[in-house]
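Meet our chain:
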Amino acid sequence: MKIVAIKVTPTQCAEASTTEANIPQVVLITGAKSQLAQALLRVAADIGELALNSNANTNTSIPLELYALSRSQLDITDAANIAAVFDQYRPSWVINCAAYNAVDAAEHDAIEANRVNALGPELLAQQCLLSGARLLHVSSDYVFGGQAVCDVRETGAEQYQNLDSAPNHLPRPFVELDAPEPLSAYGTSKLLGEQKVLAVLGEDATIVRTSWLYGQDGHNFVQTMLNLMRTQPSLEVIVDQIGCPTWSDALAKVIWQLVMQQCSGVFHYSAQGQCSWYEFACEIQRQALALNLLSQPVVIQPITSAHYAKQALNRGMSLAKRPSYSVLDSAKVQSTLAVNTTLPLPDNVVWQDWRQQLNCMLRRYHDDN
């Protein structure tokens, strides 16, 4: 069995009060082949020092040892397999990156989506409860379906010079206390996974919702757009779904901070700002041309969700319903890390606008290729 392992030991830590504190603590990462798991390993290597904060009063810390396990090594839907892996590695933390992410396919395969996205997290949580390990579970903006709104007249929206002519409400980013309302089988399965984890672990659970994730690894919107822009003369991209693209490496940095500071609760994390898929595609092309990742531009046409779904039906495909607005508010996690952090994040990319995060990712993609 091939295991991806990274040992990272802090170079500047207060001397531990006991010899046991110097023994590395194990972090298991499920779904080793996922783009987020790969980002977690890459960011850990870049940081070069990860340590668990063991005592806030004495500032003692414990080095972390990381193991990323693929589905063949750890099937999160198999309770016996989970128990055997826990017995072998004795983790202090588990970061669950394993997921069923085929949003459209889940409409016809809800049983499998629920097995991976709900039963799997529940079984992990149960084993964590038995062993004393902590669990960080990754969830999605697709647990939301409607629009969180703010009162325009209370906020005094700047884009309206005359508030009397403004609409009564405008969409606002979702906060952690907003009621979920999934529109799809996928979103329902992700919400059920959250609920199962919280039911087992309660206030000790850590859940991170993110949105529109992309990165150097795996299948994602940025990679798809770059491939299509190299091979197609024109593209049609949805204009009436609004969210926020999030670079997997930036999310990985947030996750490591939450683990190192042993934070619990439900958190939202995405890049700053918001855009449509159409705006995202246009920005990908603009930056890719500037970096010579593309040799020439293609025509990008905006298209509505309804028209796109009709085209899919004509091809014999049915699409899951997606939220028209699913922007997440990251204020809670930013405030939490600002208060609790002892090891600074390597740079400011975590709290940057989505365009700046995209630029960082494309530059690294350019350097790697």
Q: What stands out?
A: The first helix runs from residue 35 to 47. The first strand starts at residue 4 and ends at 8.
